[in-house]
Amino acid sequence: MRSFLAPLGLLLAIAAMAQAADEVKIDVINKVECERHTKKGDSISVHYRGSLEANGEELFKGKFMIVLAKRRGEARRSTMLIVVYSWEQGLLDMCVGEKRKLTIPPSLGYGDRGMGPIPAKSVLIFETELMEINNAKDEL
Question: Would 86 disulfide with which of 22, 26, 108, 129, CB 3.0-4.6 Å?
Answer without folding.
Answer: 108
